[in-house]
């Protein structure tokens, strides 16, 4: 059933790809974004792909009055997907209060306004970072939550607890918590993709900028880990596959009356791949070399983590499908597009 959905942080990387898939599924979308980590031009890309321009409100979700005004001016919102959050692990260590204020106040404001405006459910963008360094891989939703290794990771853990406590207090709302592994890639159209501001912290944007000659050389942060080739292992998931999971989760949450008030899903491919394997995949699939060297480990890095996605596959009916080489080609096409513009 097509509903009106609020997407906070909807001009961001995962948010924009999710807005495309929501509109492709027939939903009406309202975006609120403060454009602190994205730009308004993303709306043109969304419209070009999906053939429809979402309603856009520039605003900060930490301001309750801004959100109240949005709900008053956009009646009939039935669900929310909350992407709006600061997400740089390293920055969160330097500026913890910014992270706690932004990420937690945003969520609290949304939860508080939902019953007043008849919003039935919220899909929350969480992260595998809540697991810390897993005792074993692959990791499923029953794995223990470990003490956070950064304020960013802590905001994700606290947010999950806030949602749980609020729903268990009897609030008339439902929630689906999606724990992402490592989102990568870009839309195949190369009309939207990742727009890192400044020097990218994440692997793939740094890799594609190196391949494009913007960065001199990619440093692989350590090859002395207890893994087959010594570099860290991650579960790299295509951003479009990830976006599609949000549409399925929203439908399940809003249309399926007999599901639990809170559900948690790990969103990953179930396939662990190393940093060096990712570089090989990029070079093989694009024919473009990535100058790289081995450097020291990065503090706080998890050695290896990949998902056990069976619950999402069977209960949600969702599966990550994009082959890694195709994701790498899309990432490169997007980088080339950025270079042109
Ligand atoms: C991946 C691997 C690095 C850069 C974080 C957050 C997670 C999510 C994604 C927000 C690691 C290595 C990286 C480089 C490298 N956050 N690397 N050289 O740290 O797994 O996850 O970002 O959405 O919640 O925890 O992602 O891309 O930074 O690093 O060798 O220049 O690539 O050491 O092993 P990470 P990442």
Structural overview:
With about 350 residues, this protein is an alpha/beta fold. The chain has a domain at about 5-185 and about 235-265: 3-Layer(aba) Sandwich (Rossmann fold). The chain has helices at about 15-25, 40-50, 65-75, 90-95, 95-115, 150-170, 205-210, 240-255, 275-285, 310-315, 325-340, and strands at about 5-10, 30-35, 55-60, 75-80, 120-125, 175-180, 180-185, 220, 235, 235-240, 260-265, 275, 290-295. The longest helix is centred in the N-terminal third of the chain and has 18 residues, at about 95-115. The radius of gyration is 19 Å and the shape is globular. The structure holds UDP-4-deoxy-4-formamido-beta-L-arabinopyranose (WQD). UDP-4-deoxy-4-formamido-beta-L-arabinopyranose binds near residues 129, 202, 298 and 301.
CA-atom Rg in angstroms: 19 Å
Bound molecules: UDP-4-deoxy-4-formamido-beta-L-arabinopyranose
- Helical coverage, percent range: 25-40%
Could you tell me the CATH topology label of one domain: Rossmann fold
Gross morphology is globular
Question: Average pLDDT, to the nearest integer?
Answer: 97
Look at the structure and give the CATH class of one domain: Alpha Beta
Chart the SSEs and their pairings.
Layout: E1 4-8, H1 13-24, E2 28-33, H2 42-50, E3 55-58, H3 64-73, E4 77-82, H4 89-94, H5 96-113, E5 121-127, H6 151-168, E6 174-180, E7 182-184, H7 203-211, E8 218-221, E9 233-234, E10 236-238, H8 239-255, E11 262-267, E12 273-274, H9 275-286, E13 292-295, H10 310-316, H11 324-340
Parallel strand pairs: 1-2, 1-4, 2-3, 4-5, 5-6, 6-11, 7-10, 8-13
Antiparallel strand pairs: 9-12
Helix pairs in contact: 1-2, 1-8, 3-5, 5-6, 9-11
The structure holds UDP-4-deoxy-4-formamido-beta-L-arabinopyranose.
């Amino acid at each position: 059933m097509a509903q009106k959905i609020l997407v906070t942080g909807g001009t961001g990387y995962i948010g924009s790809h999710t807005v495309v898939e929501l509109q492709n599924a027939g939903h009406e979308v309202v975006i609120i974004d403060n454009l602190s980590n994205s730009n308004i031009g993303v709306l043109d890309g969304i419209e070009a792909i999906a053939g429809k321009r979402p309603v856009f409100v520039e605003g900060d979700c930490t301001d309750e009055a801004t959100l109240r005004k949005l709900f008053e001016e956009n009646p009939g919102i039935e669900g929310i997907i909350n992407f709006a959050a600061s997400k740089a692990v390293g920055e969160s260590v330097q500026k913890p209060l910014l992270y706690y204020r932004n990420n937690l106040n945003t969520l609290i404001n949304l939860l508080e306004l939902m019953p007043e405006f008849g919003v039935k459910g919220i899909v929350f963008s969480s992260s595998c970072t809540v697991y810390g360094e897993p005792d074993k891989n692959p990791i499923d939703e029953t794995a223990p939550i470990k003490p956070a290794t950064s304020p960013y990771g802590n905001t994700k853990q606290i947010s999950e607890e806030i949602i749980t406590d609020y729903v268990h207090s009897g609030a008339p709302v439902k929630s689906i918590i999606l724990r992402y592994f490592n989102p990568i890639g870009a839309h195949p159209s190369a009309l939207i993709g990742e727009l890192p501001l400044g020097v990218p912290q994440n692997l793939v944007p740094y890799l594609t900028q190196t391949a494009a000659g913007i960065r001199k050389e990619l440093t692989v942060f350590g090859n002395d880990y207890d893994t087959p080739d010594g570099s860290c292992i991650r579960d790299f998931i295509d951003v479009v596959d990830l976006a599609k999971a949000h549409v399925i989760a929203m439908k399940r949450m809003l249309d399926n009356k007999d599901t639990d008030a809170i559900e948690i899903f790990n969103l990953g491919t179930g396939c662990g791949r190393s940093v060096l394997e990712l570089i090989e995949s990029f070079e093989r699939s694009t024919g473009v070399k990535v100058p790289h060297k081995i450097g020291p480990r990065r503090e706080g890095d998890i050695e290896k983590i990949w998902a056990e996605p069976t619950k999402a596959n069977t209960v949600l009916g969702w599966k990550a499908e994009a082959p890694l080489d195709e994701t790498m080609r899309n990432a490169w096409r997007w980088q080339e597009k950025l270079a042109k513009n």
